[in-house]
Structures are given as C-alpha cells and as structure tokens.
Amino acid sequence: xxxxxxxxxxxxxxxxFGVTGDLAKKMILPALYMMVRxxxxxxxxxxxxxxxxxxxxxxxxxxxxxxxxxxSIEDRVALxxxxxxxxxxxxDYNEPGTFKALxxxxxxxxxxAHYLAIPPxxxxxxxKGLGAVGLSDxxxxxxxxxxxxxxxxxxxxxxxVRSEFAEDAIFRIDHFLGKEAIMNILYFRFANSFLxxxxxxxxxxxxxxxxxxxxxxxxRGAFYESAGCLRDVVQNHLFQIVALLAMEPPAYxxxxxxxxxxxxxxxxxxxxxxxxxxxxxxxGYHDEPGVAVDSDVETFCALRLSIDSxxxxxxxxxxxxxxxxxxxxAEVLVELKPPPQKLFDDSRPLNGRGNYLRFRISPxxxxxxxxxxxxxxxxxxxxxxxxxxxxxxxxxxxxxxxxLSDAMAGNGALFTRETAVxxxxxxxxxxxxxxxxxxxxxxxxxxxxxxxxxxxxDGFWCTPELDDGARD
Length: 472
Prior knowledge:
By secondary structure, the chain is of the alpha/beta class. It is 36% helix and 20% strand. Helix 10 (228-246) packs across helix 11. The chain is globular.
C-alpha cells in the first residue's frame, strides 16, 4: 500500500480527550450527532477526561449538549445510535494507568484517531502517554488550536508530535477552514478565468479582512489572558484567509499542491514590526473573571501586512479583529485600482471606494462585485452598485462535523501543515512581546481610533454602516 492509500484508510475509532470540557459540549458532541445522522460516523467513540464519570453520565452529558446546541433533538434514532457508540475513560493524564485503561477500552481497534480537545499545556503529556502504550502506532492525532504560543513553542510542539506521529497523520484543526464561505474563496479564485488577469499588484489597490464579534470573552478570562486577539484569531483564522487569497495557482490538481502554495505565502510575508500593529482592549475587560487588574492583553488587533512576492509586492493587506465590536461579521474586501485615465469626473468619488470584490463570510455568505453604472439622463454621472454573484442565508454544514469527518477519513485538505504553522508564527513573533500598550475602546464601537490611522493612507475600513449604500 502506498503512502497516499494509507492516508485515506478510515480510522476505526475516535478518542476525544477533554470530552467533559466546553469545546466538546458546544461543538464536538453536536458535530458527532450530525455525523451519525449523515452516515459518516459508525465507529466507537471513547471520551477521556479527568472527571470521574461512567458511560451513563457521558451519554447524559452528550444528550444535553446536543439538545442545547440544536434547540431540540430532531432525530432520536441518530441520537440513540451515537449514544450506543460512546464509552468513557476517566483518569489523570499524568498517570500511565489512564492510557492503559484507554487501550483496554479500545480493544481490537487498529487505527484510532485521537482528538486533543484539551489545553495546549497538556498536549505533550497526552502525546507521550499515547506513545508509551503503543496507541500512536497506525493512529492519527487531531490537535486543536492554538498550535504553540510563538515560533519557538510551535517548533517544539511539532517536534514532540512528530516523535510519535507521521506528518500525514497529524491534523492541526482550525474550524474556520471548514466553513463553506471560506472554502468558496478557494473555489471562486481558481474556477473562474476572468479573475486571474486582475488578481495582482497591477490592479489591486489593497485588501482588507475584518472579523468582528459583538460580544466579549464570555467568561474565558484565563484563556484570553494567555492568548489575546493576535494569537487567538489573527495568526490562524485571518492568516488562512490571506493564504487562500494570495496563493499562486497550484501546479497540479492535489491538495498537497494547495498546501505547498499556501506555505509559500506565509514564507513571503514580511515579519511584523510595532508600527504595523494597533492593539486595543475594550473598556470593562479588567472586570472579567480571570483577568488581571493591570492586564495589557489585546481584545482588538489591527495590522498592516506586506507580502513580498512577485504578485503582491507593494499591495497593503489590512487585517482587523476584535471583541465587543459594533456587530458580528466577517468579510474580505479586495479594492481595485481606479482606471488609468479619469474620463469621467465621478469615476471615483474623492472619499469613496474604487471597484471591489467582496467576500462575506458571516453572518450570511456572499460574493459581490462592485462597479460603477451611469444614472439616467444627459450627464455622465454614475453610482457604484453591487452585483451579487452569490448571496446565501440559512444553515451551513457544521465546520466541526466536516473537519472531523475528513480527519477520520484521512483527508488532510482542510488542515494546516507544519511548515505553514511555523512560517505564520515567524511573521507575528517580533510583535508578540515588542509592541505599544493596548488602546482602550468602548464596547459597541469599531475599536480604537488608532486603527483608522493605520489604514488612512489607503482608504478606510469596510463596515456595514459605510458600505451598505452601495449594495442592492
């Protein structure tokens, strides 16, 4: 059997470390229910945690989690089928007996997939524990973000994981890559021939990406104190979007080729400097449980990114994300340069935008192209209007269900590779410790005013209030 065939052999069990935790309750258990409904999960699922539960308590917890996530349980048959697959192993991750008990629970399983839905501080302990009892042989490991805290820790974590698992058996999960709208960016770029001639420094004026949330840290003060917006959102979620937008066409039809081109984008990114970054913190953050009274951790981050490649040299990329913003939305706006000759006086309003392509990721999914059209009458006066190429509302597939199904099947297309992870950390590493203090901003705003100054030389941030007038 060749290497590619080995990768595509399905796992015959799923082990979920941290099954009693918040991530499992909100995302993983509901995803497993969806997978059972769709017929993509029919193997044993072993939950592992330090809580002293039994199988019945895990099944009760799973039922409540699924009901809470979906509002109700529509498919009782699927639920019962999932519950019949669940077993529980309780124990301290530092105790070898926990992993021996897990091996006993797996019985004759040959190719388990281990999902580490646990704090990063426990990754090394669990990986070494699996290796000690032979549970890493022929197995896969699914590692939840963040994968490291900086370049040095990412390299060390990669070294540890690679000591027990082959690279093609390591699935570094970023649920953002499982979203339908994110996948459509890759498809739209390379399935349409009209885009390629203008998708470069000669025609693109700037690119900006916003991921805003209108809520705070939701009681996760201890986690956010150890992460912050730059680590939690920008270095992974937003950088992955940049890679899909900026990558060169893959040389052949293979997701290995896609991973190669994405890694090249990260390698071409210029390392960030303090002047490229604006950090913010919403007023009231210090009052959150688990937050230090003098904390300077950022809940908002805006940055200017440069990609020193032939295609993108000189094109500024602006990334922005924050908590307690005016609304919850995620959007990409690729603004094009104006026509070379100003034939009409209003071809580009002084304070307006040029033509652009817009990818809306949430709350709805949209791809829109903005162009100027003439208004009726004798005068050559026009206005910019949006042509929607895609505009979808409604439920989308759960990213976790999609990604877990892929990992179980051995399909690594939507996961990140070692080279890409380390290259992305290299970009942000200089500003993780060397930066200005966070600027306070009011909840319900668009962040500190300094973020507007950062982008002022190339325009202004896209916000629903400013840009909806061009949409129809």
